[in-house]
Design brief:
The chain is α+β, with helices and mostly antiparallel strands. A 3-stranded mixed sheet has the order 1-2-3, covered by helices on one side. The protein is flat, with a radius of gyration of 14 Å.
Length: 78
């Protein structure tokens, strides 16, 4: 199996999150963002995406990790 073949197999079951370090100031807006992330993760899981990765920076990366309970270094959801 070549690296190109491996990549093609992996890209259909994985999702990466990254975003801005500066988040909305209001708690209400952060909760809306968190809810949208949770529903997006749930929908992707229904579609067969079971690996979710996120960076470790403060801001969106951290919220994405918490929304899906994804370890900051990346993780696997089943």
């Amino acid at each position: 199996m070549t690296a190109d073949t491996f990549f093609c197999l992996e890209k259909y079951d994985s999702c990466c999150f990254t975003g801005h370090r500066v988040l909305p100031k209001s708690e209400e807006d952060r909760n809306i963002l968190r809810d949208k992330l949770r529903s997006t993760i749930a929908q992707l899981a229904k579609e067969g995406i079971y690996r979710f990765y996120t960076g470790g920076a403060r801001g969106f990366d951290s919220i994405a990790a918490m929304a899906g309970q994804i370890p900051a270094s990346g993780g696997r959801v089943r």
